[in-house]
Amino acid sequence: MSRTIRVGDLSAAAAAFICAQPDLPAATLDRVKLVIADTFSANIAGATSDVLPVLQRYIAASGGQGDKVLLGTTLRTAPELAALANGTMSAALEFDDVLSMMPGHPSAVVMGALQADDAALAATGADVAASYAVGVQAGARIAQAMTLDHYKRGFHVTGTVALFSAVGALAHIRSLDEATTRRALGIAASMASGIHGNFGTMAKPLHSGLAARNAVAAVQLATAGLTASERVFETEGGFFDAYGSENSSARHVEGLFAGPWIFDEPGVTLKLFPCCYASHRGMDAVQTLMARMGIGAADVESVVGLAPPGGLIPLKFPKPKTHFESLFSLPYALAVTLLDGHPGLRSFSQQRVTSADVAAMLDRITMTESDDCVADHPGYEQKSYGSRGEVRVRITTRDGRSDAEHVHLAPGHPARPMTWQQAQAKFLGCAAVAGFDAATSEILFEHIAAIEQQPRFGDLVNSLAF
Fold it and tell me: For position 386, what pLDDT does the model report?
């Protein structure tokens, strides 16, 4: 087997961008702040997940004493363990952001790492927001260089590439030089992990936590003087060879690190439903049909859904048995939309998964993949399974009526963006579930929404714990 000859130097391009001081236009900063606020929502709600007791036992067994907070809890631990826990909790309820061009969920990883770093905690909110943006941008461009082939091989990009986003954010907030940053990227490359096979289990959100922890460790080790390849993507046996394909190349992102900002183009999707993003278009279709037909769950005779080829790959569980499986089940997502109206966190609880009305509704729902859902959407092959083509849903009622809806873009997509009002409602709901009182939650959201005005990021982080 002949070796692919790699040209370019992705590490150098990424490090040069990370170590610069790029300008964040006001409109871009507003989008950045919205995603940060959304990530805090997911993080504090994640404190109610079944994964938290497991993390507590792991932290106790690891002897991880320290002063870094786990959001939404009274727990304190060492930096790497805090990054692991907060990164995992942010992803545990599938309520965190989606960057389809990656495709992955970088913010849980980046914010998990920043919340555990002394330099970030001592910095202003404005500086942290800038470092967060730089990190997400760097990881997004690295993912673009990898191409979608990386995801198609079965890698969970959140664990493998969003790791580099967190390294970039930490390197930027610490003002590391380019050589140290390249070494940190090289160290992180040997830590990258995460596979699709663990979707529907606790290990899936752990990918985010591991990436956050590994970013903290990689930057600390590079700062301490550990050597690593400074050209880790193109080198023989490097990241492109091991994780990518013959199409992986720095040439795909030449001149793109510095712009446009991915928060502007193509934009970041924020979830209005707490489950895998690949389900959201179907859920939106059901809500539209229920309103248009003037029906409730009791009126439904059958639901037939069509997804584009590959669209059901991340949605592995037609009839889920656990909370974690329900997050990756399109029939379940449609069932609780019919039954609950606007599915929230409790719609994906273990108690709801095993309820009789859900089981009965699942028997009325059929989902298949269809070439018809490719339609005429441009760039189909370059899009992730959950965002390509369109989803079609047809509802037939007990009295013989039938109607169908086609959805190309889910709510929360950059073309149908989450508003600040929706972001506040999401935060207040997540805070209530986590145990914050309403008055405190209102104040907390005001501070988060004005993060660029906060004199010390650590004070904001600490206010989100008990």
Answer: 74
Would you list the DSSP string of 131-168? HHHHHHHHHHHHHHHH-THHHHTTB-HHHHTHHHHHHH
* Alpha-carbon separation of residue 167 from 132, 170, 220, 240, 314 (angstroms): 10, 5, 10, 18, 27
First to last CA, the chain: 57
Distance CA 206, CA 64 (A): 18
Q: State the angle between helix axes of 178-189 and 10-19 in degrees (0 to 180), rounded to the nearest 10.
A: 130
How many CA atoms does the CB half-sphere of 343 hold within 13 Å?
32
In DSSP terms, 368 is beta-bridged to: 306
In the structure, what pLDDT confidence band is assigned to residue 2 with cuts at 50, 70 and 90? low
Fold of the domain spanning 277-407: 60s Ribosomal Protein L30; Chain: A; (3.30.1330)
C-beta separation of 200 from 318 below 8 A? no
Bridge partners of residue 304, in order along the sequence: 366, 394
What is the third-level CATH fold of 10-253? 2-methylcitrate dehydratase PrpD (1.10.4100)
Q: How many Å is the maximal CA-CA distance in the chain?
A: 72
Residue 207 scores a pLDDT above 70: yes
Tokens of 219: 């930057």
CA 77 distance to own-chain centroid: 24
Q: Tell me the pTM.
A: 0.95
Between 466 and 3, the more confident residue is 466
CB 164 within 8 A of CB 14: yes
Closest CA to 331 of 391, 407, 399: 391
The pLDDT tens digits of the residues spanning 151-183 come to 999 999 999 999 999 999 999 999 999 999 999
- Two tokens, residue 141: 């461009």
